[in-house]
Amino acid sequence: MDKNIYLAQFYGKSQNYTNIPSQWYKKYGVKRGLRNEDHTGVLVGLTRVADVVGYQRAEDGQKIDIDGILYYRGIDIRELVKNDRDHGYLYEEASFLLLFGYLPTKNELKHFCTVLQEGYDLPDDFLEANLLHNPGKNLMNKLQHALLTLYNYDPDPDNTDVYQTLRKGLNIMSKLPSIACYAYMSKIHYYNRQSLIIHYPRKDYSTAENILYMLRPDSKFTAKEARLLDVMLFLHADHGGGTNSTFTNVVVASTDTDLYSTMASSIGALKGPRHGGANVKVSEMMERVIDTIGTKATDSQITDVIHRILNKDFQNHSGLVYGFGHAVYTLSDPRAEILRHFCGTVAKEKKMEDIFNFYRHFEKIAVQILSQEKGANMCSNVDYYSGLAYAMLGIPRDLFTPLFVISRLVGWLAHNIENKLYDDRIVRPATKYVGDLMDYIPMEER
Ligand SMILES: CC(=O)SCCNC(=O)CCNC(=O)[C@H](O)C(C)(C)COP(=O)(O)OP(=O)(O)OC[C@H]1O[C@@H](n2cnc3c(N)ncnc32)[C@H](O)[C@@H]1OP(=O)(O)O
Ligand SMILES: O=C([O-])CC(=O)C(=O)O
Q1: Any catalytic annotation for residue 383?
Q2: Where is the active site (predicted)?
Q3: Which of 236, 328, 333 should be mutated for ligand 2, with most atoms under 8 A from CB?
Q4: Are residues 139 and 285 in the same domain?
Q5: Residue 86: its pLDDT value, please?
């Protein structure tokens, strides 16, 4: 008999012993998902790295929804993008700001970029031994694997001293773009039988320029393309201490484990489709929607397809309209606003206006329907337009979430360091035992 049948039987029977009725969570005052009754997050820390604002409190404590604002070290990200004078290192500048708490001078930024650029080279046999000989079918898992392997190349890998954490973290940030690009090349070479192309990163290039340089067979890109990718990396760099992958980082690091294990845990969290992995899901969902109703679809066709998604009758049956909703933002996610603007500008050049206009149309209707159906303001989030922006840059879907990792690594690092410096307690909340006490029954009497 198939052994799985036994397993299914044990599993079925277990429901009599393991069930926890949903009303008990309320009864015992459990904050599910670390959320308060009004869905806002439970306070679990203090930070000066970033602030994510989606609502205000009235004098009587009532939650008032507002347009979203994201601050990096107290500076509105819109100000940072607006004042970026096309120097091409916005992501590096924001990384400096997030890590050190102040805006770098020209000279400081130059030295900081030199530190990153000096770390671009991978250890001698790393590419051959770990990436080419060992292709991975999911690049997020491959990034975790590669990071855990970098541990072996560090002469003092378990040192979690704050300054060493900073140095190791910057070294990982330097190397991750080439690791991700090569992992992709290795994957398509092995699984898709495509030619293997390896371009070594250039030390005079920014993170964004190098990614385009390494990914494109002819290594060519325009300044406008590099700027768009630089902005993308900038927009994903941090999102406060409450976001799942950053909280994961802090939880894991609080055990004093090594930085490689900690970062690998955050990558695992970010991969999830309710979190960073949503950028892939949006792209798949929108492709399927466009295949089904076309870019010239009417309001009622879009409304119909959104209801099908909500009713789990379309695509992956999760019931989620990916790219919408957020734990903090209500009326708008400022990153989505910025990305919409950039996508609109680039769409014409890339002859993708039809698709961009469809995204706009779908977005307006999805926001209306979701807000009505769920009884709360819901907006498009950063993941809604990010895949479209990457597609405009010719970046493959496999790399959408890895690019999020490349960017967010600095946020994880900044919070990791902040927590080591000022909080430094093992994270250890409590759960209440709600099962019965049982007598042990000897085997022959069961
Ligand atoms: C970088 C990032 O991580 S951005 C987020 C990327 N994730 C996505 O785009 C996935 C789709 N969105 C979601 O799953 C959610 O909106 C999240 C995970 C982002 C936020 O979740 P929460 O804050 O827990 O949502 P919240 O509790 O306010 O949701 C209220 C209700 O709306 C539903 N809901 C929320 N978002 C969506 C959505 N996009 N589609 C359908 N239903 C949704 C929830 O399932 C919940 O339904 P219920 O009351 O029937 O259980
Ligand atoms: O804040 C969140 O919960 C998710 C998010 O947008 C991010 O991590 O960028």
Answers
A1: yes
A2: 326, 383
A3: 328
A4: no
A5: 67
CA neighbours within 13 Å on the CB side: how many for 441?
6
In terms of domains, do 379 and 407 share one? no
Residue located nearest, by CA, to atom 6 of ligand 1? 275
What is the value of ipTM here, to two decimals? 0.98
- Determine the distance separating the centroid of ligand 1 and the alpha carbon of 275, expressed in angstroms: 10
Q: Give pLDDT, residue 85.
A: 72
Residue to substitute in 239, 279, 382, 383 for testing ligand 2 pocket (most ligand atoms within 8 angstroms of CB): 239
Paired residues of 72 in beta bridges: 50, 75
Find, among 239, 315, 317, 319, the residue nearest to 275 by Cα. Answer: 239
In a domain, 430, yes or no: no
Instruction: Report the CATH number that the domain containing residue 114 is assigned in CATH.
Output: 1.10.580.10
Residue 10 forms part of a structural domain? no
Domain of residue 218, residue span:
68-274+399-422
Tell me the CATH number at 289.
1.10.230.10
Same domain, 141 and 269: yes
The answer to whether residue 55 sits within a structural domain is: no
pLDDT for the residue numbered 421: 98
Report field, pTM of the whole predicted structure over 0.90: yes
**The tokens of 403 are what?**
């690019």
Start-to-end CA distance of the chain, whole Å, equals 23
Number of domains in the chain: 2
CA 275 – ligand 2 centroid, Å:
7
Give the residue ranges of the chain where pLDDT is below 70: 1, 86
CA of 325 to the centre of ligand 1 (A): 5
Q: Look at residue 433 and tell me if it is in a domain.
A: no
What the block records as the tokens of 158 is: 């378990």
